[in-house]
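Subject: Interface between my chains keeps coming out wrong

I've been trying for a while to get a sensible model of this assembly. When I model each chain on its own everything looks fine, but I need the whole thing in one frame so I can look at the contacts. Pasting all components below, labels as-is. Any help appreciated, I'm running out of ideas.
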Amino acid sequence: MEKDWITVLQRKDQIAKVLDTNQETARFGLALSEEEAAEIVAARDNVLKEQRRLEFGPTIVPKIIYAFCDSAYIERDNYADTILRLQEMFFTFRNETMDEMSDDELLGFMREQFENVCSGDLDYLESTVLPNFAEVVREGYRGYKSADGRGAYEQFDEVKRWDEELYRTALKDLVWK
Amino acid sequence: MEELAPIVLDLARKYMSGDSSSVTYEAAETLMEAVIYTINEIEESPAGAAVAAVITAEEAYRAGYARIIEKVNQCRKVYNEMIREFDAYENEFYYDTVAKGLPAFFIHYDARFRPQDHLLTLDYLTLDFDPGLTGIDQIEAYLRSTVAEQRYLRLFPRESVIRALEEWNRGYRKLPVNIAEIARERVL
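Reply #2:
Try treating it as a single job with all components included. I did that and got this:
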């Protein structure tokens, strides 16, 4: 009985901490309802169990929210679902990178790729970018350490995203021909 | 077990050193094993049971940790004295385990987060080797046996020991055999 009470109180505390983030995210037009915050905290418990991890101290959720709330690809309509997916990816790829990346490095990396390479596509982040990068981290790459996970993906990206020469040729064709 | 939770939690925070908010089950289990091993150091000491009955788990953990550090220092001292005159009698396993393995243990042993792990495979088995021992307790027992074996072997002329080993098996240099046992059987 006593343990149940402790669990209930801990969960309430975590929900309150998630709801606290509304004060900061309001300026980006984002807010979570109490129901959504509860859903995120419940999902956190499930993903931790699935990934066989234990979280000590405050939950990572507020950090995820603060890292992503100013994204151009998150709106009120997809906000709660996006945080749910990002939370799941975060714990999955903590394991996939064998804990070599710190919380901040992994979040920094996820945020940068979500905004740039993925253009807000969570499926692409989850199925391509994160697995590719996790593989090189497992193989021993540590170049991301100096910049908290930022600016690290380009060299491992299998897709050529910007060809300046091609751009200039096309521009010349359009303007001068 | 519940009273160990705050100690494991505190150890986990130190282990994560602010880099992470979560650990794998395996890492948490290793930390729990570390706490139990450390507390056992007090419970298994001469006055252990009596002391452990009157102190809290946290106090027992702190005292256990101090005892582990003391044992490591004592073992290092014993090793440094022993290695000066150590003779492997040209056996590779004996040499690698004692002259290369043990110094590596003193460099890499993690008394705080993995005190239960003695890191070495200890391929050269001493006569009274106890596979049930772990961590610094295993190294302490191993060193005690090694010192005793070396003292025993020095009772015989070195050439007699080498000859006895060669008579036993000309390839003894590359075999994981106990030198003292063969010397006892063949030299006496």
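Reply #3:
Confirming on my end. The mean pLDDT of chain B is 91.
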